[in-house]
Amino acid sequence: MRVIVSVPDSAWLRDLPRAPALCRAATRAALGHLGKAVPKGEIGIVLAGDAFVRTLNRRHRGKDKPTNVLSFPSLDGTTPRPPVNVPILLGDVVLARGTVLREAAAGGKKPSHHLSHLVVHGVLHLFGHDHQGDAEARRMERLERKSLASLGIPDPYADRASV
Prior knowledge:
Layout: E1 2-6, H1 11-15, H2 19-32, E2 41-48, H3 50-61, E3 69-73, E4 88-96, H4 97-106, H5 111-126, H6 134-149
Helix pairs in contact: 2-5, 2-6, 4-5, 5-6
């Protein structure tokens, strides 16, 4: 699996110099916990700014505000798959720097841990996981916890139990 990280918002590298490496590790952790064969291919991770993500969110989801992460799967179940050994673009995960850092600070989380969590979350979306219903959300959160634990990152949902 090839993970290509692009950084159109260079402030990511100022705020989290290891961001590209963290994204690659989080992507591989998520893929390792999918429980199914992952096709040979590429995943793009885009470390962008809030304005860019706001534009994407408005265009693709009808929400005129930035969000922390957006996923754009390339395979939707109707697209014909290429031959087995031909690498394919599996999709892109786009993250908004300002939103990610604000959320980390508000939640008392390390920015590197929150970024890793959101990359795992976004990659799981690329493979059809969702959190619309309770059962789906539990399944997705379980995969997130396993993926993050393999990176030595604490359970991002642990504080929910104390609420």
